[in-house]
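RETRY 2/3 - previous attempt timed out on the joint model. Re-submitting the same 774-residue input unchanged.
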Amino acid sequence: MDRSTVEAFIRGTFARYYHDNPVQPPTSMEKREFGFLLFRERMMVRHKTFRVEEDLRNFIESTTPSDVYYSAAYYERADEEMSRKGWLGADLIFDIDVDHIHTPCRIQHAYWICKKCEEIGRGVPPSKCPKCEGENFREEIWPCETCMEATKMETLKLIDFLTNDFGFSSGEIEVFFSGHRGYHVHVENERISILDQLARKEIVDYILGTGLKAEFHGLSEKGEKMSRMIVGPDLNDEGWRGRIARGVYDFLTSATPESPEKFEGVGRGVLKKFIVNRDALIEAWKRGTPWQAVRGVGIKTWEKILKYALREQGATIDTVVTTDIHRLIRMPTTLHGKTGFNVVEIPVKDLEGFDPFSGAVSFKGDSVTVHVNWADKFRIGDSVYGPYEKERVELPQAAAVFLLCKGVAEPVVQLKEKG
Amino acid sequence: MELSKVDHAKYPFTVEAARYVKKRDLRIEDLASRDYAGIVKRARERIEEAIRYGEVGWDRDKEREYKVEIVSFPISIIMVLSTESNFLGKRYALAESKRAYNLLRVEKEDEKLVEIASSSFNWDVKTASETTRQAYDFALSFIDYLKNAPGFHDYKWKLVNRFMIDRYVFLMKDELARLIAEEARKHIQKRLEEKIKVKLPPTLTQAVNDIRQLLSTHRELIQAEEAPQMVVEEAYPPCIRALNEALLSNRNISHIGRFTMTSFLLNIGLSVEDVVKLFTSATDFDEKLTRYQIEHIAGKRGSGTKYTPPNCETLRTHGLCPGMDDLCKRVKHPLTYYRRRLRQTKAGRVAVKSG
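RETRY 2/3 succeeded.
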């Protein structure tokens, strides 16, 4: 079966969904640009504008795109070409995607699809497709619960920065599941909307800890020669000070010689020094004088540990998304073309317990029979499916649409009708 | 708190000072009258000081002459506009902001800085005494902080190196003074970019002509001061040449751009003094900060490491490579380029001599 037949099937399913579940347009809709990725030809239609909600809903229902986007930016004339739009401002947006987070398991979920014959295999692509000898592959990563939890942890760290350091109220922060492998965070606030790229870069650097120098956060040497003391931040300090202290403390309690890659940049010698003196150092934290506790652990050594602390304490956000003031972002309440999941809003207080594999499931319909080329294990709600290989299975609609969107299965119903 | 007349004189860019001028309902024709001779003279003097010293002057006598000081400012603006010189516009805005900085940082009352920043620029700012952070002088919303701080190049200005809680960045007086002065510079600069046609009375036309004359003689001097003599500029690689041009035309250079330029110059034999002069006379205005940063790169502060410029690949990543010439293709580092080109030109000279 060719891809366009599969896509026609998904499109029909999406169309019915949008008919029953009208999308929620963003604020200031008329000042934003909309973009749609069409199933047909995988073409992007941009620079669309809508004045009334009804027009947007009708457009989505009738064209049924695979993915729907709108601009974080507000324009005077959003429908004109870029240089003539007249930029008025932009929401502050953050993207946390599993691509940027190096979970140890991610290599296990890699799989490839041959662009010519749609053959699928696990791991990194071979030089030639074993079936058709094609040389072009799509490289994909199978969604994994560990990775999704990791992105959630990063999102929680981001929320901590946004509320405690940047002082945004919970009403200004909106968190969304991206529909695929991460989370989007939007901040809508009139004063922030006019910030330029340079200012947004500073915000990004703050959240990642890029360019942080501990000397500006209280880590310094005081006194001369014999009476020289190292002073530094405390675990209970606010802002980056406390994060530095907590990151270093975390290093102390978790440093092992077995996992040097986790402590990249620290160096084996330093690592050893800490493991040997661990108990004395932890004691010193309790007394509040940790920075001076061990002979031979000087300011240079602490600065090396800091690299680890910054990586642990910063939130791994996509640097390009936040600094791009013309960015198109996925529209909440729409479907993700690669999963069929919904881009759902998650109240900040519920984020910790959010489960994307049930909270973002859009389709509740009857079962569908599909032929699966290849699929790793996956979960929808409380049920686990797969792994499958070249077999016909009857699945609940959400699970079937998921595999169809992933490009690893074909609907069997359609085949019968055709024959 | 309310600003006094003397404050208006010290900070003529504030909305309060503008209101004072507006109340006097001054017409451009009036400037020809004898009553305004003193004000016109001071207006001209302001610009001359900007050209000669790079900073508009202030002294105690001006407190008594506050009226002259306040009203002369908008007239200076009109005169600078009439010269139609962008170079002068930039230099004048910078000279006014330098004065503002030096006055603001020694103001005894913290509330005065808060008043200027909030009423003239609508900044969300308060004195730190209103918070629990007594170790600092002020708290400024990060949104307003980021309007100017990203343009400053020292690491201490990076947001990540600031103490920030609940949207407020904590600052010392000297730092808020610098941010306000920079905002003032931008406001003045903006007024100087307007295209207005005013018919000046003859006395002012004469003054404008004199200023043009003074400018043309000083312009060469300013630029000569900026470029130290002992380096062979012709041997600069394209990246450094581009940075140098940006610097001399007062365009904003990124942190890494400035680092590249500084470390390059220090490595080809310029002294810290020379580099400080190059930066402060041409563009940025805080000599102390610039010096601190340059000394850092020279290895005289901090870790003691003397830095070299980034290699070509890193420069490309950060968009600082304007495109390669033939020699670039054979080297991987801007310093290698300079040394090779220098040898080539020296060899060239020797060849010419012997021939």
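Residues 414-419 of chain A have pLDDT under 50 and may be disordered. Closing ticket.
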